[in-house]
Amino acid sequence: MATAYLTHQQKVLRLYKKSLRHLESWCIFRDKYRFYACMMRARFDDSKEEKDLMKASMMLKAGEEEFWTNQHPQPYIFPESPGGTSYERYECYKVPEWALDHWHPSEKAQYPDYFSKREQWKQLRMQSWDKEAKKNNFKKHNMQLQTSPMTSTCDVMENL
Asked: What's the domain count of the chain?
């Protein structure tokens, strides 16, 4: 999957945020962290007005290298973030939606409003799915008619 190109400003902002996050890992006490965070902000502000893009790019590269050498060996990771202790913790307990179709009628009777709306949504989904499938089949059929006998089916699938 292609990622978007980052501008120079976005790269600098991401470097600044990464640096502050790693600084939090280095400084246990909040007052010490604030002191060093203000010093870091001053360093970024000093180079904020640089007009020469080549020099700014070199400064960014030097900053990234400095970050790499000074990063924390075991940075703090938020629990719900990727790599955190609680990331996707409850994914295994999520029941798929189709499991509700297999409930006993007495269980469904306990939630009549929910299941009546659910049936309406299922009907709407089926109707819209039929329309979308017809539209896609029509488009696919037209694509196959427009291709010459020399084109392979792989070329047709790439155009979809």
From this structure: 2
From CA 58, how far away is CA 35, in angstroms rounded?
Answer: 27
Is 31 a member of any domain?
Answer: yes
pTM above 0.70, yes or no: no
What integer pLDDT is reported at residue 141 of this predicted model?
Answer: 58
Domain membership of residue 106 (yes or no) is yes
Q: Which two tokens stand for residue 36?
A: 């060093």
Helices 30-46 and 8-26 cross at an angle (nearest 10°) of 160
**What is the extent of the structural domain holding 55?**
8-70
In tens, the pLDDT along 83-94 reads 888 888 888 888
User: CA 36 to CA 142: how far, in whole Å?
Assistant: 64
36 vs 24: CA distance, rounded Å: 10
Structure tokens given for 153: 């089916």
Closest of 74, 80, 76, 114 to residue 97, by C-alpha: 114
